[in-house]
């Protein structure tokens, strides 16, 4: 693939901008500046740098973000900064077939929720991970206002009715981890689901953190606000 096309596919700007970056000597491959925008390279496995910033070619982008509190999962946030500002520009600019550019969050977390968020430009992956039919378990660590008791845990496991839906929603797993905290596993992602489930059993969410999606846990060395690429092993762990 031509170097300018590689840059374009990775989100470094329009084809014209990418050709310009190469011609201006701002792109290096294997530590050597390449000024020929049409130079051919094997894209798969290619590492290059643009204005000194290293980048590895990814045909599709799959990333994991440790969402900090006080951020919105929207491209056009109303009050809080968008999570997308935590990602480098190429991830936000990767060309897509439709009008929306770049990676998109796989589901949303509330402004005050922290923890694991996946983002990708692979629409099929988003569909598979979000569809209730695929039952991908998501684990939440919940801090509660009132003490957690066995009755609440039993009700969450048996199913609670949320205001807009006559069908009860139930936790796939639920255990108290402390007097004021519990670990809840859900396989659906309804609006404010954890908060509404806790309210339905007479308690209230004070803090909410997503620690796991499927077989993948939030890495302990990924600080709030940091992101990293998903590895092939991570992606394999996420397969149903
Ligand atoms: N449930 C909620 O109530 N909020 C979240 O952010 C995620 C799940």
Describe the structure.
The model has no long low-confidence stretch (mean pLDDT 95). A hairpin with a 2-residue loop joins strand 3 (47-50) and strand 4. The chain has helices at residues 3-9, 15-23, 89-93, 123-130, 150-158, 193-200, 232-238; strands spanning 27-29, 32-33, 47-50, 53-56, 62-67, 104-105, 114-120, 138-144, 160-162, 165-169, 173-178, 181-186, 205-213, 216-217, 227-229. The protein is 22% helix and 29% strand. Helix 1 packs across helix 2 (15-23). It contains seven helices and 15 strands. The protein is of the alpha+beta class. It folds into three domains: 3-56, RNA-binding S4 domain (Structural Genomics Hypothetical 15.5 Kd Protein In mrcA-pckA Intergenic Region, Chain A, Roll); 62-132 and 220-237, Pseudouridine synthase I, catalytic domain, N-terminal subdomain (Alpha-Beta Plaits, 2-Layer Sandwich); 137-213, Alpha-Beta Plaits (2-Layer Sandwich), CATH 3.30.70.1560. The longest helix is centred in the N-terminal third of the chain and has 9 residues, at 15-23. Strands 5, 6, 7, 8, 11, 12, 13, 14 and 15 form a nine-stranded mixed β-sheet that branches. A four-stranded antiparallel β-sheet has the order 2-1-3-4. Strands 9-10 form a two-stranded antiparallel ribbon. Uracil is lined by residues 109-110, 113, 192-195, 208.
């Amino acid at each position: 693939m031509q170097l300018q096309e590689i840059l374009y596919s990775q989100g470094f700007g329009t084809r014209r901008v990418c050709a310009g970056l190469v011609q201006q000597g701002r792109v290096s491959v294997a530590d050597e500046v390449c000024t020929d925008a049409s130079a051919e390279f094997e894209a798969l496995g290619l590492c290059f740098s643009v204005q000194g910033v290293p980048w590895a070619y990814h045909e599709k982008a799959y990333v994991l973000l440790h969402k900090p509190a006080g951020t919105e999962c929207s491209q056009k946030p109303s009050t809080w900064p968008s999570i997308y500002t935590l990602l480098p520009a190429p991830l936000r600019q990767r060309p897509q077939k439709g009008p929306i550019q770049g990676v998109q969050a796989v589901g949303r977390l509330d402004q005050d929720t922290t923890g694991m968020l996946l983002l990708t430009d692979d629409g099929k992956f988003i569909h598979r991970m979000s569809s209730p039919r695929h039952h991908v378990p998501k684990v939440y660590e919940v801090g509660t206002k009132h003490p957690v008791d066995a009755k609440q845990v039993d009700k969450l496991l048996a199913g609670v009715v949320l205001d807009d839906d006559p069908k009860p929603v139930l936790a796939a797993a639920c255990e108290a981890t402390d007097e004021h905290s519990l670990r809840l596993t859900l396989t659906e992602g309804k609006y404010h689901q954890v908060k509404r489930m806790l309210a339905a059993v007479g308690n209230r969410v004070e803090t909410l953190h997503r620690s796991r999606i499927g077989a993948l846990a939030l890495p302990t060395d990924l600080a709030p606000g940091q992101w990293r690429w998903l590895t092939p092993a991570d992606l394999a762990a996420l397969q149903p």
